[in-house]
Amino acid sequence: VPLLELRVVTRRYTRRRDGVTAVDGVSLTLAAGEILALVGASGAGKSTLSRLVLGLERPDRGAVLLDGVDIARLRGRALRAERRRMHLVLQDPYDALHPGMRIAEVVGEPLAIAGVASAERGPRVASALEEVGLGPAERFLGRHPHQLSGGQRQRVAIARAIVGQPRLIVADEPTSMVDASLRATILELLLATRERLGTGFVFITHDLALARYVADRIAVMQAGRIVEVGPAEELVADP
Ligand code: ADP
Ligand code: ADP
């Protein structure tokens, strides 16, 4: 069973009178430990597809299978349990870093939501911070996001993403707002997470060169459809 399988998934927005089929009959698989880059122009449907994968939206048609379980059919507690096995990393780490929270709470929040006791959260938060190169963690636990540099914030965002040991991480343009050296660091951290935990990644980017560098396979999205998917070196489409 693949880690993730999309079967002919369609999502149509009908709020506007003309409507738009943001995701149009998409089928895809992702194996554990695989990095799939999703490339395509603005408006191609990448963000909608990622929300469907994360169980934040429901498709109109089709199945979204996580380890064989169709999350598109789940509700309530069962859906929340599946969502906790995934994590979203955004381009602006501030999106995930609530300014009023201390770093200990920011990184520990996914564990708190999952019901992990606070005594167990502390050591797991410290080891996640060490994983991303922010050890010894005591220097950071009591600070707030605005007291950190951009690079430290992005590391904190990744610590938060990996602390719950998710099966799947969706990274939506995680390096589009950072300089080349921080981009290299972020990619290294993501690749190390894949090695250590066997995490699968859906890596959304505009940057085809970056997709070729980081991904095992690339899916090219245009107007809601996957027009091509395959190993980076065999790709012919120009997204
Ligand atoms: P991308 O992430 O590739 O830029 P999106 O998934 O954001 O693409 O958008 C795909 C299409 O769906 C676009 O036409 C966009 O305007 C539309 N769309 C996205 N989200 C919504 C929404 N919540 N309501 C209505 N239309 C939406
Ligand atoms: P190109 O020659 O087309 O730039 P590269 O393989 O050199 O292709 O780079 C592709 C993308 O991957 C670029 O955006 C580059 O910044 C990034 N990249 C290349 N090497 C590394 C690396 N070691 N660490 C992080 N990012 C890298």
Automatic annotation (TrEMBL):
It comes from the Bacteria. GO terms for biological process: transmembrane transport. PROSITE patterns: ABC_TRANSPORTER_1 (PS00211), ABC_TRANSPORTER_2 (PS50893). One of its GO terms (molecular function) is ATP hydrolysis activity. Residues 4-239 form the ABC transporter domain. InterPro entries: AAA+_ATPase, ABC_transp_ATP-bind, ABC_transporter-like_ATP-bd, ABC_transporter-like_CS, P-loop_NTPase. Keywords: ATP-binding, Nucleotide-binding, Transport. Belongs to the ABC transporter superfamily. This is Peptide/nickel transport system ATP-binding protein. It comes from Pseudonocardia kunmingensis.
